[in-house]
Amino acid sequence: MTPGINPERLMAMLEQQAAIGATEGFGLARPALSELDVQARRWFADRVRESGLELSMDGAGNQSVTLFSEKPDAKTLLIGSHLDTVPNGGRYDGVLGVLSGFEVLLALRDAQIQLPFHLEVINFTDEEGTLRGVLGSSAAIGHLSAEDLAAIRGGMAELEAGLGRIGSSADALLHARRDFSRYVGYLEAHIEQGTRLETAHVDIGVVTSIVGVRSYWLTFGGEAAHAGTRPMPDRKDALWGASHLIQQAREHVLLNFQPGVVNFGRIALEPGAFNIVPAQVQMALEFRHGDPVILEAMEDALLTLARQSAEMFGLTLEIRSAGLIAPAPMDLAMVELIEVAAKRADLSHMRLMSFAGHDAQMLARVTPSVMFFVPCLDGVSHNPAEYCAPEDCAHAAQVLLEAVLLLAEKSGDEP
Ligand SMILES: [Zn+2]
Predict the structure, then answer these.
(1) Please, what is the average pLDDT of the chain?
(2) Residue 324 confidence (pLDDT)
(3) Measured in angstroms, how far is the CA atom of residue 179 from the centroid of ligand 1?
(4) Ligand 1 centroid vs 382 CA: distance in angstroms?
(5) Is the predicted pLDDT of residue 320 greater than 90, yes or no?
(6) Distance CA 366, CA 373 (A)
(7) Which of 267, 272, 337, 404 has the largest count of CB atoms under 10 Å?
């Protein structure tokens, strides 16, 4: 029997889960390990049990349902995303990836397909970073240390309380590492959270890389002076340097580093009065690109512009790193696999980068990984107005199903 996904079953699941933590309008609030997240986990466990399958949970609280292969020594193909949301988020971010994966698993089970690998669908803990971003996937790949936990948002007590709600602990979290030599790879479907697919009228966006992020505190130092009596040519106005940099950085990134992005998200002036020339400006600089080499070049260019801006206005400049996330290129063979899967499902596709973080960026370090996007209305996400049309939700499951079948055919060819 040819397996096919059941769009009505998928839509019914998406509808049901949206009742847990529903906010005004169309929104959802299920911060990781909160009481509402626990309810969503219980709901998922019930759906799995109802379908006659079993749910398991690892030390990080990652929930899994597995369709077992009868092949001896079978490895595992992992499909996943997350059921937690940001405080006033939407119904599809993460949820679509878990439930479309589960729909694929059910479709294969219903059609009694024998796969050459186990198929595991996973709900990763705290992708959104209520306590720490990509917490569950970091733990699963063994990239989580006791020092990381010490720096957790809200503190250790909050973490222990949350893990306690799902019957786990910080110690179990630190020991949740898996052996990824036993995995075939990782697939993740997600809403785009941007407008590129919508604008191009394309069904599927195949992610080639999840961007790296670098951030800096920049402090321009000048001299406070009377804003009336100090002649303009004699001023050391810290804001002149800072504002010059902002405009230069914008032009430079638009001209030389597309599709890279730069942002100055916070700016503080000292002393901060109508009648005083600004003596100091501190600002938060962040920039992103998916290519590690280009990200490095962006850093050189932006920090050079900052130094030049300081020099031009006779200012001092202090540069302090505020964090670094490496770009996560997706596996090229898996990217091509999704393109073939989309074609088989009769869907148009294009390649793009992901400018937001996802669990796939962790998995990419340990197993061949890829993620793909379906369009969401006006690119709106992390907002109650987030909306993914039923046909786009179904496309996510269709492409996942074709990808699983393609991988099964491929591994059947192996000697
Ligand atoms: Zn997400």
Answers:
(1) 96
(2) 87
(3) 24
(4) 9
(5) yes
(6) 22
(7) 404
